[in-house]
Design a protein that fits this description.
The protein has 9 helices and 7 strands. By secondary structure, it is an alpha/beta fold. The longest helix is centred in the first third of the chain and has 19 residues, at 62-80. Pfam families: Lysine_decarbox.
Length: 244
């Protein structure tokens, strides 16, 4: 029996020694598919996977508001831009706010939805509003977050938990340190966000620069959020996409 080639040796590929190979696959394979499908510009929607339609302890239906904002964005870019300059609705691909954004995008064209799903023991499954051509499955959180940021030309953060906060602070840090170009970042739901994080206090204590507080804005309604995105979204220039 002839020896098995390394790239066909599944035992090796799933081993600790080949972790670098698996990480590289989660960079190269998505990049190839994004290029094939002309996905160059996205607006990333973040928020809790636990939100359900009609639910909200504070009286807000965050699911409906995320869906309505994504629908307005999808309708605008569908009519205003050629394929290579369109802004796709990109989320982590799962339930909750992620599903809501894709439900809204699908009201216009499900081909405008991009879902970057991740394998988890609970909560996470690919929502039904993402077509196979634009559905991705990740194992490594940091590679999934890399792609959520790399093509993003805007980001909207709805109320969420640890994962949403992790994604928000990573993006703010990347912008603060010049690792990504500045994009509009909207914190949707002023009362929620101001009650959760005291950003001005960080500046008052000298822990961030005063101008860092201007890296994001609060929004409280769909129309205001959409108008900011419509006014400020710009497609990636050729050969210059997101993370540096």
């Amino acid at each position: 029996m002839s020896p098995v080639k390394a790239y066909k040796n599944n035992e090796f590929l799933m081993s600790d020694a080949a972790r670098g190979v698996r990480i590289l696959c989660e960079y190269v394979e998505p990049e190839r598919r994004f290029r094939q499908t002309d996905v160059r510009n996205t607006v990333a929607f973040f928020g809790s996977a636990r939100v359900r339609a009609g639910q909200g302890s504070d009286g807000r239906d965050w699911y409906a508001e995320a869906a309505n904002l994504a629908e307005k964005l999808a309708a605008w870019t569908h009519d205003a831009h050629e394929l290579r300059e369109r802004f796709f609705v990109c989320t982590g691909g799962g339930p909750g706010i992620m599903e809501a954004a894709h439900a809204g995008g699908a009201r216009v064209d499900s081909q405008l939805n991009v879902g970057l799903n991740i394998s988890l023991p609970f909560e996470q499954h690919l929502n039904p509003y993402v077509d196979d051509a634009h559905a991705y499955q990740f194992h490594y959180f940091f590679m999934r977050k890399f792609w959520l940021v790399k093509l993003a030309r805007g980001a909207v953060f709805f109320p969420g938990g640890f994962g949403t906060l992790d994604e928000l602070f990573e993006l703010l840090t990347l912008m603060q340190t010049g690792k990504v170009v500045n994009i509009p970042i909207l914190l949707y739901g002023r009362e929620f966000w101001e009650g959760l994080v005291d950003f001005p206090r960080l500046a008052e204590r000298g822990l961030i620069s005063p101008e860092d507080v201007s890296l994001f804005r609060y929004c409280d309604d769909v129309d205001a959020a959409f108008e900011i995105l419509r006014a400020e979204l710009r497609p990636h220039p050729p050969e210059s996409e997101g993370l540096r």
